[in-house]
Amino acid sequence: MEPRAVGVSKQDIREQIWDHMESQNLADFPRPVHHRIPNFKGSYLACQNIKDLDVFARTQEVKVDPDKPLEGVRLLALQSNKTLLVPTPRLRTGLFNKITPPPGATKDILRKCATSQGVRNYSVPIGLDSRVLVDLVVVGSVAVSEKGWRIGKGEGYADLEYAMMVSIGAVSKETPVVTIVHDCQVMDIPEELLEEHDIAVDYILTPTRVITTGCERPQPMGITWSKISREMMEKIPVLRSLRAREQQAGKDVTLQGEHQHLPEPGRQQAVPLSAGRRPPDTPGPEANSMEAARGSPAGEGAPLAADVYVGNLPRDARVSDLKRALRELGSVPLRLTWQGPQRRAFLRYPDSAAAQQAVSCLQGLRLGTDTLRVALARQQRDK
């Protein structure tokens, strides 16, 4: 397809593709395709073409987006005994889930594992500290050019996921990127529409073609914090953990709409607890484990500690599961009181501000299939 006019925008191209696919009945469920990565007819056939790529044959760990038209690639990865990583939906509870079929899984079970239901039922979260090395990235697209320039559905998750993988060292500039689309989704994209955070693709698979783009456009070098809003930080807890790490490494993590504050000469800059750092007088992990705080008694005028209630724990949950989730989200408490039989736990933080930040950070946290209830302990008692 060709873009309709000079001066076209990314959204114009999206609407053109969506309108065309609807009018020509080129998509399967879910419909309409607007505001989605289209589940185009022939997607399973297009996915089979990945078997012809040497990069797929060589790969050990492959990251595939959860979009419906990529289901065939997820199945092929599982059938080939490759490690399959799928981003968590909208990154609400972390970055990756590793799909783990049960031992002796049949073909039918593997097919189920490749679906969105399988991602929920047959996966385990992968923490930021896990040593993940992704050999191949597979993304969905709304439009893509033969030069390798890509347009997604406009929410930016695929670009952000890639940037986050760069941040944790999971991908390098040599990691190939593949997209799978209908033939009508391959079109010219004006170069002026591209931004520095946009990922490019090396291979395009359609039901009839395998296109090697030869794209030399550099991939994003990491998270562009100036493009990240406060609203996005609230919605994606794992971003807060990554921002804390990069802030500690001395990188500029100024968010969209923020002004960069430089410390005055000779004056120590205060860092909020949510950034993953503690005040100088707060005992560190060596003194405070998650099981017991062994610091010296609080001095005169010290802030009162505050507790956070965590409820609706799965019946088979272990304390190590919750500890791991807290570490990944950068919300490690001074003390964790585990009450597994009552399906709850209490987290002790140094003051009410830190506790409130933890409540915000942990909203939407899931262990297994259960979403946890998180609130300040006093509020929970009031309820």
TrEMBL record:
Span list, region Disordered: 247-299
A Pfam family that the UniProt record links to this protein: RRM_1
Residues in RRM domain copies: 306-379
GO cellular component: cytoplasm
Highest taxon listed in the record's lineage: Eukaryota
Gene Ontology terms for molecular function: RNA binding
Keywords: RNA-binding
InterPro entries: FTHF_cligase (IPR002698), FTHF_cligase-like_sf (IPR024185), MTHFSD_RRM (IPR034359), NagB/RpiA_transferase-like (IPR037171), Nucleotide-bd_a/b_plait_sf (IPR012677), RBD_domain_sf (IPR035979), RRM_dom (IPR000504)
SUPFAM superfamilies in the cross-refs: NagB/RpiA/CoA transferase-like (SSF100950), RNA-binding domain, RBD (SSF54928)
Listed PANTHER family: 5-FORMYLTETRAHYDROFOLATE CYCLO-LIGASE-RELATED, METHENYLTETRAHYDROFOLATE SYNTHASE DOMAIN-CONTAINING PROTEIN
Protein name according to UniProt: Methenyltetrahydrofolate synthase domain-containing protein
Organism expressing this protein natively: Macaca mulatta (Rhesus macaque)
Gene that this polypeptide is encoded by: MTHFSD
